[in-house]
Design goal:
This protein is mainly β and 193 residues long. The chain has one domain. The chain contains two helices and twelve strands, in the order αβββββββββββαβ. Strands 3, 4, 5, 6, 7, 9, 10, 11 and 12 form a nine-stranded antiparallel β-sheet that branches. A three-stranded antiparallel β-sheet has the order 2-1-8, with no helix packed on it. A hairpin with a 2-residue loop joins strand 4 and strand 5. Keywords: Signal. Residues 1-21 form the signal peptide.
Length: 193
């Protein structure tokens, strides 16, 4: 009997030590988006493909998808940045603001405007910049029951919650494979290493 008790005590001590072992902490930040609710901040680790210092734009790549990023002066000087460098982009997609059909022959892409029209984000961390973004993407589907639109754009396959009833009606008229321009508010922060 004492042998069984010592085995149980040893297992209990081992379990207690394992519970105290240092594990990496995962930082999760949440922001409230108007019309959507709580949204986690997405962290993209991208590779710099090319840099246009005069235009303050950088082409980045992640998992075979490339897109252009306009880098506001708030994120620092681009002089130290080199092709092949790794950059972290933290971004939050806001609610869909507008949708329209793309011009014939359009390919997935991104167009930026410096500021969003109305406040979309609550409890936004410091140093985030808010702007309007128009994604040219291939429409996949709209689930009216959950109000979620699925599309394939410059960041790959994505989905987005839709709050506006007029936009929901527009989405119901689209067919899979249609190229569309999705306009939404975006908050982002770029960490240049």
């Amino acid at each position: 009997m004492p042998r069984h008790i010592s085995l149980i005590v040893a297992l209990s001590i081992a379990a207690g030590v394992a519970a105290c072992a240092p594990y990496p902490e995962i930082a999760s930040e949440t922001v409230i988006v108007a019309g959507v609710g709580p949204v986690e901040i997405e962290r993209l680790n991208v590779r710099v493909v090319s840099i246009d210092r005069s235009d303050r734009s950088v082409v980045v790549e992640q998992q075979g998808n490339t897109w252009r990023v306009d880098v506001p002066p708030a994120f620092g000087n681009l002089e130290r940045l080199r092709e092949g460098d790794r950059v972290e982009i933290r971004r939050i997609e806001g609610a869909l603001l507008d949708i329209g059909r793309s011009r014939r022959g359009a390919r997935p892409g991104i167009a930026y405007t410096e500021a969003a029209g109305e406040p979309q984000f609550q409890n936004l961390p410091d140093r985030f910049v808010v702007r309007t973004i128009t994604l040219t993407a291939r429409f996949e589907r709209f689930d009216a029951a959950t109000s979620v639109v699925s599309y394939v754009g410059p960041f790959g396959a994505r989905s987005l919650k839709v709050a506006d009833p007029a936009l929901k009606a527009d989405l119901l008229r689209l067919r899979r494979g249609d190229m569309v321009d999705l306009t939404l508010a975006e908050a982002f922060y770029i960490i240049l290493n």
